[in-house]
Amino acid sequence: MSNLTENQTKTAEILTVVTVEQKPEKKKRKLTPYLIAAGVVLCLGTVAAVVALLLPRQVEEQAPVTEEAVSTRVDYGLPEWMTAAFLTEDGESRTGEKMEEVLDIAVHYVANPGTSAMANRNYFEGPDSNTSSHFIVGLEGEVLALIPTDEKSCATNERNSDTVSVEVCHPDETGVFADATYESLIRLLTYLCTEFDLTEENLIRHYDVTGKMCPLYYVEHPDAWDALKSDVKEALAKGMPDDTKA
Ligand SMILES: [Zn+2]
Question: How far apart are the CA of 70 and the centre of ligand 1, in A?
């Protein structure tokens, strides 16, 4: 009986040890569904966060084609392919000062790769900016009118009083314009040359005024700038299509 009892005790001890050793394993097994659930929650959370980040961006990238924007565009005689998104007259980005005359058209790049026309327009509108441009051409080729062309913009330093300024968005740091952007830019420049009785010779870069590397790609690649001017010349020779007239 004594031996049996000892054996039973040993067995009980072994069982206890086994039980103790097995406990963590059992815990691990029980934890697995929770880990999976936590993983799923994390994944869903990440997806929700990404969607939340993307949504305002999508909204931001959409030009505000409200009834007011349309009637403003019509009031100012702007063509249908433009969106009126005029800045508030704040004495800084939009001073309200009248232009003396329009002698040239100055092309700029936004120097902020991948940003939309609307995002840049909203930056001009915000309290941290005292700069602006008359027009901005976006990554999808959208054209926003920010300041009426009889008012000065704050873009081209000493030439603000006699140039119309055009800011251009670009996908990367080289500053080269995307195809859709380029196409719209040529249309806008052709339209402006027609409006102010100018030619491609009146197209200037911010660089030509101050030596600033703007628009970067077209300063670093003078041949690309010459090609752009040639494209406007060609478009001017063809004349503006009826559907692009105001
Ligand atoms: Zn510039």
Answer: 28
Q: Which residues pair with 165 in a beta bridge?
A: 106
Q: How far is the CA of 42 from the centre of ligand 1 (A)?
A: 44
Angle formed at CA 180 by CA 66 and CA 235, multiple of 5 degrees: 100
Burial of residue 194 (CB within 10 Å: 0-12, 13-18, 19+) is middle
Bridge partner list, 109: 168
- Give the tens place of pLDDT for each residue, 157-214: 999 999 999 999 999 999 999 999 999 999 999 999 999 999 999 999 999 999 999 9
Ligand 1 centroid from CA 83, angstroms: 22
Domain ranges of the chain: 67-244
Instruction: Indicate the pTM of the whole model.
Output: 0.74
Farthest CA pair distance, the chain: 119
Cα of 202 from ligand 1 centre, angstroms:
16
In CATH, the number for domain 67-244 is 3.40.80.10
Assign residue 214 a region (left: φ > 0; alpha: ψ between -120 and 50; beta: otherwise). beta
Q: How far is the CA of 58 from the centre of ligand 1 (A)?
A: 26
With residue 28 as reference, give the H or E element that holds it: helix 2-61
Q: Locate the DSSP E strands across the chain.
A: 82-84, 104-109, 135-137, 143-145, 163-168, 203-205
Question: What is residue 77's DSSP assignment?
Answer: T
